[in-house]
Amino acid sequence: MEINNVQVCNVCLRTSEESPNAVFIKAMKGGEEIHVCTGCIPHIIHGSGDVAKSNAQVAAELNR
Fold it and tell me: Which residues constitute the domain of residue 10?
């Protein structure tokens, strides 16, 4: 998800502020646009999309 121009990985919650050199990919899950850092993409490709949290779940975990 993206909050105030900061990308947050919907899998591991890494932010672009914490890791300025990380690359984030936009993806769709359940009709919702999400962001996934490249480190978490193998978990989705080789595992399941179930590891990706919804934007509401990410916001709740970040207390926003």
Answer: 2-63
